[in-house]
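May I ask for whichever protein you like with its backbone structure tokens?
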Amino acid sequence: LLADIESTPIPTLVVGCKLDLAPERAKQAGYDRINVDCRKAMAPGSTNRIILSKFFDSVVERRKAPMASERRRRLL
């Protein structure tokens, strides 16, 4: 089950202050990773702001898409 979850491209946002303790799976799986300093505001149009916007867009798209279980129910 864990291998199935890791192979599924689920948008994931990890927030924390111990970056050195975070697993390095993000690099291996090809997911975008950003570091945000909470003491500074993100400037409009900055790289981190664009990446964060794309992340939220992918979450919304995924939420709007029908779930696999719903598709199965329709087929049955």
Summary: The radius of gyration is 16 Å. The mean pLDDT is 67.
